[in-house]
Amino acid sequence: MTESYGIAGQALELLDTMDEGLNYLQTRLQNGFLEESSFLLKDISDAQFAVGEALEGMQTPEDMKNALQSASDELKRCFVELEKSYQQSEPDKARFELQVAVIPAFRRWNEILRAYLGPVANS
User: Fold this and answer.
1) Cα 75 to Cα 106: distance, rounded to the nearest angstrom
2) What is the pTM of this model?
């Protein structure tokens, strides 16, 4: 159980870092730095995968697992669309995808994770 506390705490820290990264990515895109910010997009996307992998070993209530899977799948889809905008060098589309799809999907995913991980990390 002690391992679950550590995993939960680290995942919460990573969520904060991802949030900061998305905010910075948004600023970079608004300032026209599409290509220069592609590494950051990859890091944020990789972080989502890492959080998911870390949670695999934790026991999660079924309803939470379903909600989390749904939110995670949606965020992954949003990242894929944003990555397409990067590959096609479409900064306006990338800004739009980030603003209307990725950030709201991240917020939902983040909220579900915090509802589950917060009590685990604090117990």
Assistant:
1) 6
2) 0.90
